[in-house]
Amino acid sequence: MTPLFEQVTIPSGHSWGLLWRELETIPFIWHYHPQFELTLTVNARGQRYIGDHLGDFEPGDLVLVGPNLPHTWSAHERLDSAQPMLAVVVWFAPEWITQLAAFPELRSLRQLAARAGPALHFSPATSARCAERLLQLQVLPAPQRLPLLLDVLLMLAEDGKAQALASMAQTAINIDSQQKRMEKVLDHMHTHFRDEIALEILAQQAALSLGAFHRFFKRHASCTPGAYLARLRIGRACQQLIESELSIAVIAQEAGYRNLAHFNRQFLATKRVTPRTFRRQYRHD
Predict the structure, then answer these.
(1) Disulfide engineering: 252 pairs with which of 98, 155, 207, 257, CB 3.0-4.6 Å?
(2) In sequence order, which residues have a C-beta less than 8 Å from that of residue 183 and are 6 or more positions away?
(3) Does residue 136 sit in helix, strand or coil?
(4) CB-CB contact of 140 with 74 (8 Å)
(5) pTM of the predicted model over 0.90
(6) Residue pLDDT, tens place only, 143-179
(7) Quick check: 65 and 50 in contact, CB under 8 A?
């Protein structure tokens, strides 16, 4: 499944980002971004997918994900049914932590950043101590949040029991002058993936001839437009198989497949299992 690029926006006047998400469920959205991501999950039990890692998580789970590493959490079980699930997410750029690590007192942050390339899962003791501080961030004024975050990162750097989750870090994604053109094409595909998309329309989005567009897309996506569209559709189907009670026929149609047999063949070719087997493997019944 091809991960979706997430555009993380740091608010004006801030050097890092904070997302406070209260949810009934945590949806499966396979994505990546060039920033580090520190995620604390509260009142939720489910699965996390990070790179080639798949594992269960419990309330209080704390993970630091490295830049450009595909990841997502998925959860439907709340320990306290009267309260929402909570995800506290902190984003910061590699350059931000490099600047901080230039201070001798914060040198350990450089090592933390290097270890977090394949994502780090922190020990229960460290996670609990950090959670107390992370849960205060939302109510503090912006100037007071930064010292608290630094305190958290320094504690994480000292956690000798933290474990890497993925087998390797993701290499940096090359960005060239044609990125905006490619983003325009991908935005159109992500919005209309359920429809039949004419290649001529995509070529117009890129302001290229049909032949030039084929070469352009394959160079940037390492696959054909048809293969990319199939990945989007199968990715949507995977999300629905994990999160919903919908029948496989309805899921196939909702993902853009008009023929159930074709969907089953393409799903098996992509995931190496049938949709029914995938649902049994990756969700709680």
Answers:
(1) 257
(2) 5
(3) coil
(4) no
(5) no
(6) 899 999 999 999 999 999 999 998 776 644 444 446 6
(7) yes
